[in-house]
Amino acid sequence: MAKINVSMELNGKTVSAEVEPRTLLIHYLRENLNVTGPHIGCDTSHCGACTVDVDGKSVKSCTIFAVQAAGAEVLTIEGMAGADGKLHVLQEAFREMHGLQCGFCTPGMIVRAHRLLKENPNPTEEEIRMGISGNLCRCTGYQNVVKAIQYAAAKINGVEYKEAAE
Amino acid sequence: MNAPTDPSAIERAEKLEGMGCKRKRVEDVRFTQGRGNYVDDIKLPDMLHGDFHRSSRAHARIKSIDTSKAKAVPGVVAVLTAEELKGVNLAWMPTLAGDVQMVLADGKVLFQNQEIAFVVAVDRYIAADAADLVEVEYEELPVVIDPFKAMDADAPVLREDIKDKKDGAHGPRNHPNHIFNWQVGDKDLTAAAFAKAEVATKDLLSYQRVHPCPLETCQCLVSFDKIKGEITIYGTFQAPHVIRTVVALIAGLPEHKIHVISPDIGGGFGNKVGAYPGYICSAVASIVTGLPVKWVEDRIENLSTTSFARDYHMTTEIAATKDGRVTGLRVHILADHGAFDACADPSKWPAGFSNIVTGSYDFPVAHLSVDGVYTNKAPGGVAYRCSFRVTEVAYAIERAMDIMAQKLGMDPVDFRVKNFIKREQFPYQSALGWEYDSGDYHTAMQKAVETTGYRNLREEQKTKQEAFKRGETRQLMGVGVAFFTEIVGAGPSKNCDILGIAMFDSAEIRVHPTGRVLGRMGSKSQGQGHETTWAQIIATEIGIPAGDIAIEEGNTDTAPYGLGTYGSRSTPVTGAAIAMAARKIKAKAQMIAAFMLEVHEGDLEWDVDRFRVKGNPEQFKTMSQLAWAAYNKVPPGMEPGLEAVSYYDPPNMTYPFGAYICVMDIDVDTGVHTVRRFYALDDCGVRINPMIIEGQVHGGLTEGYAIAMGQEIVYDAMGNVSGVSLMDYFLPTAVETPKWETDYTVTPSPHHPIGAKGVGESPNVGSVPCFANAVNDAFKFLGSTHIPMPHDNYRVWLAAEKLGLHA
Questions:
Q1: CATH 2.60.120.620, domain B39-141+217-265+272-304, yes or no
Q2: Residue-wise pLDDT tens digits, A45-54
Q3: Among chain A residues, CA nearest to B29
Q4: Catalytic residue list contains B761
Q5: Those residues with Cβ within 8 angstroms of residue B410's Cβ, 6 or more apart along the chain or in another chain
Q6: Does B674 touch chain A (CB under 8 A)?
Q7: For residues B756 and B575, what is the distance between their CA atoms, to the nearest angstrom?
Q8: Same domain, yes or no, for A102 and A47?
Q9: Residue A145's domain is classified under what CATH number?
């Protein structure tokens, strides 16, 4: 199949690669650009391990072709830390609250949580649970993922985090 | 271990971040930055990709396979079928259960999605395209799907390769589709107990076929170096050393030419214990092409081919006195093993440790008989987050105890408590042959009852039932109780081996001159956090801060031989090996300290991170000082250096236990349930990292919830498998998942060096019967005795329908 050039702004840098038009965004990222933070867990758009941010929206990158993201601004887990290497508050929060175990869903979960907090800086627990319902985790039972997002929201909002009563 | 009391010692102990502390996980630093290194993240130069053409039929003879169209696709490098594999004697492979399994279909197919051809191409898209172009001509054969019909006189013979074989790996077979019969306990005494039973129950309790479904599927990357004659295998292996041994035995290669590496693993839950056709085909393809070959299964392939769990059909009988004392247990299990017996159990245990079916109760006599049969379903039989077949029988006994309590008119808690093994009975010899190491069931149950306000819940339920009968509500309230006893930590060499290798585990600890430490273990984390917790054990044992201890696992070239991580065996076995290796280091350090301080060893005492002279605490040497001295100032006659290896053969299994209570509300008109409360008390002995334990319990409960309330791998009458994508297979999201309340008691294991028992799987074992009991409890006042799993909304609605509640 003839290849075409696809370029985009990935984590603040312009990238490009020659790919078949049918290449999915997740494969473009993982195979062509060696950006292996986003993972593949289901191939059917259910698990959310491949979640990235495209032009300010959470997207399951196995659901769209790379060409559909041509020219877009794309954010993956690799772009979450600051240029100085300082971790994003969500990255710190997931570790602090034990919001991960095997780590396979984590890149998608954190990138999704980032967009969720942009859309709703002060979500209730229910809103968080609904907001990450497109991201499956087999290890944590989500309880500490929710806490991590609450912790991060509090930090971003400059308020003290109070662990919700069990 | 005595807790330090003086302020300086407490401060020093805190700095160690040793056992008992909620140490943050080391692994998370890379995982939260997308820097995990999973198999599919690894790329080698000129790497090829493999993909399977799979059977569309459940049982058929293969008349022909035409690979010409696939081979003609540009970018396709090779296509393997059974014919090619026969050239290297690999068309079939041995299974862990003493059976053989086709690697690629040889003459016939025995289950839908069975592997037929392996297409190797320059990228994964081309491999998938070409796999579709393989053409197979089938001659349909009648299928066996219902395990209860597998041994009918006129049942089609599935395994023609062994149809005349009268003896299998586990004794006589009495039908071509029969795999084994396995019996434990005293049949006659048990029959006698039932003959004079005042009350008896008998129920068929089926545990449906499910799949562990880790978020990362099974995958491998194999690279054969023709010049050196060496093979490197990266894979999602829970037991990398076992895989190396399998390769050595199958391929006849020496171990030093086989490099098996398990990098980061995206969850295992038992799915990644076995050896699958994809691994063999990738290895052969790499040898044939001289290039590295990667195989990554997709989710449908994962759910429909690489192992399954459960599929146990357990006819469970309890005998009891009228006043509620159990007098006998009799269980027959029909085990559906699919097309090949690829069950992942220790060699001598064809039905795993299912003889833990007596559970937490003092049954004077018991008898268990298990028949394994072949059907046209995928092979497997792995322990989905449980020790071998423990979850199945925990479900059976916990459901059966509820059913008997109902028959006796007793409260399920009271009936259990009346029959608990008492604290003073430990170590306890069970009627089916186990020696339970320790337990305090009464205390645990009492704590659960008090914390949840169980008695008040029963009052509330009674009120609601009366309101329901008056037609004032359409909601039913169920209170589920489960009290499980697990058996984990396989296992003692006297009765546990895999492929003839005893199920020990190992640790190697090196203390470097500056007091930093490298620990290497035979276990392999898949999310359990070994890099964090193993360092905590070492920190407490030898007084070096956990932050100065690096842990490595998963590389067979560098890690000592271990049997891997599954069956909650890492803490009971590897954890013990770590403590024992650390103690060897401490003993040597003590000799060095005595030499340096010019005292007898016996004049020294351990103080958190140092040896000090008894009665003169100002005279001491810290472990860090002793590490340096080990490399330049050892006593005459002593070898320099400070390292130790331990291979730990456990004297017994460990027996974690727990009390779970679930409060559930059910709408009879929709079948929709709400888990109002779920309380889980776990006793896993001494706790290494409470944060990680709590996380493990959350995860296990969520998996148990999924199993009880929806998961099922379904086959229709033709053998078509459905429910095998995440569209259908129930993985709860954050919305459905209940909130968990965790609690604990601590009953140390008396035979384990640090008293720990293991916890990862307890919540799966205990929660499934607890959810099932909650659903059943909601309906039992209406005359229902047993509603089978899974309890999805439709089936719960159906149960209500059958009880005439929709009239």
A1: no
A2: 999 999 999 9
A3: A95
A4: yes
A5: B324, B418
A6: no
A7: 8
A8: no
A9: 1.10.150.120
